[in-house]
Design brief:
Layout (H helix, E strand, L loop, with lengths): L1 H10 L16 H27 L10 E3 L6 H15 L21 H13 L3 H27 L3 H13 L4 H8 L34 H7 L1 H23 L2 H17 L2 H19 L5 H15 L1 H12 L1 H7 L8 H24 L8 H13 L15 H16 L12 H11 L2 H15 L14 E3 H13 L5 E3 L2 H4 L9 E2 L10 H12 L5 H11 L3 E4 L1 H13 L8 H8 L4 E6 L4 E5 L29
Parallel strand pairs: 3-4, 3-5
Antiparallel strand pairs: 1-2, 5-7, 6-7
Helix pairs in contact: 2-5, 3-4, 4-5, 5-6, 5-9, 6-17, 6-18, 9-10, 10-12, 10-13, 11-16, 13-14, 15-17, 16-17, 22-24
């Protein structure tokens, strides 16, 4: 009893209360203001998409085209649309429609299933529901960030500083953008910051950023990330309350939330456990909780939540295609890149860490974001292929600590002569100085979208707009192709086909399509004018193709192959392709710019099941022959 009274006294000390005087973490007025802020920020993220849609209007740049819904990572967005469509059609275990490799579908995801149910109930498209979930998730995330900040500190100014920086802040990537195109050859490679990475020399830089690393960019692009981060914040709130209130019910609720989080985005489970365990050890070291209470609370959370990582492990072990996909390397950049990518908020957070450590006995709860940040920092370099994904949510503890550093460490030193705090001005300046990377990121994706991603063709990024001929051709496949059918096309159109039809594509996604590079080469080789019928037969046999798609982007892939092989370009490659494939392909759909062919099974027999991945030597797949 004496120890429990000591723990209670410690948790209710000056400045350390977990609740406001009326028992609530936040007041109704606070909630209303935060909700208004969240709606405004999320509304801001909708503006670029409204602009993108406007480009399809009468007389606009992309009149006669349909915007596909994504301004960055079109290939990623199409994968989500595919899963949402599957879920809307009643599938529980979701398939990979971007690979022809054998698979045993076991992927079960609550987020995709919930989105699919919304498609079924509302009749809206998967793309529309994707953005509904993105907008709703953005509001939920900002509310959960404020709720977590309220759980950690009673100072409302710190809470708002944290929320403002998390909503709009980023790092020094804009400086890296200035550096990349002016760097002499003899200098080290430029920074590859996660907040902003403009196009540059491929050996030195790429156009890719890391949306999971920055809150605003996540809200702009990906509902899966923002819902998982919101769940992570709410999990931490409930887990911390479970320990403070010594209530098993809170521990059970925390376990349920972690169970859902582990299903929605399993990677976050590692960070959740790492941060919580570190904080529990600090509580034990400070004698703020008993070993019994710590073990019981954490044990309940672990037992209730364990099913989701077990299922994820089972899915990986039972489906070789899924295991190969998750083993696709997505490695972290260097520590200096992360540091620059978090920029000013990280510098402020370092000051916050110093302040928290000096005041750890009075404000011990603020040690928790330190534990969270440490867990993230270690896990982003864990010996696994998906290191980069462990950075998700790291921006949040940085912003919490930045708020502490700004308001607790810096603001008191800048108090006006009349005693009036300048905290509001400091928050405004901090946000303004950490905003440029986000602004430049938005400007860049608008530029790429306006060019229909043709400036990203080097990275095989699919187009953001499709001509109506292409849209209707995909609709034709949706009406006539079966789930076991394989469509042979360029990866650029192959990305867009699965959201509209139940079959598979030979090439369509850098990670979902296994052996992607080899398959992209095979596609270009197949469409190359002058290829022998035997070579084309061999590629179709290995692909198990039932349909062949020929449109603008297939012709573009062929031209790129011809350019790389220094071959002359014919006047009408599409006509030559049609004439040279008459004996193996039957045209079944035609428009001004697209032809869909059905593979003649009598001339292209199925690839033997025991033939392995190699090619029959008689198929003459390589090398390409000269174009006529």
């Amino acid at each position: 009893m004496a120890e429990e009274r000591a723990i209670t006294t410690a948790t209710e000390g000056a400045g350390a209360g977990w609740r406001s005087g009326n028992g609530r973490l936040i007041t109704r007025r606070e909630f209303a203001l935060v909700l208004l802020w969240a709606v405004l920020i999320v509304g801001l993220t909708a503006l670029p998409y409204l602009w993108a849609v406007s480009l399809t209007g009468d007389g606009a740049t992309w009149e006669g085209h349909q915007f596909q819904g994504f301004m960055w990572g079109v290939d990623e967005g199409n994968v989500y649309r595919t899963w949402i469509r599957q879920a809307s059609e009643g599938e529980l275990l979701l398939r990979n429609q971007y690979t022809t490799h054998p698979q045993n579908p076991s992927f079960f995801n609550v987020f995709m299933l919930a989105s699919g149910k919304l498609v079924a109930w509302t009749g809206e498209s998967a793309g529309v529901i994707f953005h509904v979930m993105r907008l709703a998730g953005g509001v939920a995330l900002l509310l959960s960030i404020y709720l977590l900040a309220a759980c950690l500190t009673t100072d409302r100014t710190v809470r708002w500083a944290c929320l403002a920086l998390a909503s709009l802040g980023s790092g020094f990537g804009w400086l890296a953008g200035m550096w990349v195109n002016s760097l002499p050859d003899y200098m080290p490679p430029p920074l590859r910051t996660p907040d902003y990475a403009p196009p540059g020399p491929p050996a030195a830089h790429t156009w890719q950023a890391m949306p999971e690393a920055i809150t605003f960019v996540s809200m702009l692009l990906n509902p899966l990330f923002i819902w998982s981060m919101a769940l992570l914040c709410v999990f931490f709130v409930t887990a911390l309350l479970a320990m403070e209130r010594r209530n098993i019910a809170w521990g059970f609720l925390a376990g349920v939330i972690l169970l859902v989080l582990g299903n929605v985005h399993t990677y976050d489970v590692f960070v959740a456990h790492g941060a919580l365990i570190l904080f529990i050890f600090l509580l034990l070291a400070g004698k703020r909780i008993s070993w019994k209470r710590a073990l019981v609370t954490y044990g309940v959370i672990l037992v209730v939540s364990l099913a989701s990582p077990i299922w994820a492990w089972y899915t990986a072990q039972s489906d070789p295609a899924y295991l190969a996909k998750i083993n696709t390397k997505t490695l972290s950049p260097r520590p200096i890149d992360y540091a620059a990518g978090y920029g000013l908020p990280l510098l402020l957070a370092l000051g916050g860490i110093v302040w928290v450590w000096r005041n750890r006995f009075r404000e011990y709860k603020l040690l928790f974001p330190v534990c969270w940040l440490l867990a993230n920092a270690v896990l982003v370099y864990a010996p696994v292929a998906f290191q980069r994904k462990m950075a998700e949510g790291m921006h949040i503890p940085i912003c919490v600590l930045a708020g502490v550093g700004l308001i607790m460490a810096i603001a008191p030193r800048l108090t006006a002569a009349d005693g009036k705090s300048r905290a509001g001005i400091l928050i405004f300046l901090a946000v303004a100085l950490s905003l440029p990377s986000n602004a430049l990121f938005v400007a860049d994706i608008m530029q790429h979208t306006g060019a229909n991603n043709i400036d990203l063709i080097t990275w095989l990024q699919p187009p953001a707009y499709l001509p109506w001929d292409e849209v209707r051709a995909i609709e034709y496949l949706g009406e006539h192709a079966d789930a076991d059918d394989v469509v042979f096309s360029s990866s650029l159109i192959g990305s867009h086909i699965p959201p509209g039809m139940p079959g598979k594509v030979f090439a369509g996604h850098w990670a979902e399509t296994l052996d992607f590079s080899e398959k992209v080469y095979d596609v270009g080789s197949f469409y190359l004018p002058g290829r022998s019928p035997a070579a084309r037969k061999g590629l179709l046999r290995r692909a198990g193709a039932d349909w062949v798609y020929y449109g603008y982007y297939e012709g573009l892939m062929a031209r790129m192959m011809m350019l790389s092989a220094a071959l002359p370009e014919p006047d009408d490659a599409a006509a030559i392709f049609r004439e040279s494939t008459e004996e193996i392909l039957e045209p079944v759909y035609e428009s001004d710019t697209v032809t869909i062919y059905r593979v003649r099974p009598d001339t292209v027999p199925a690839w033997p099941a025991d033939a392995g991945a190699g090619l029959d030597p008689t198929d003459q797949v390589t090398p390409p022959v000269a174009a006529p």
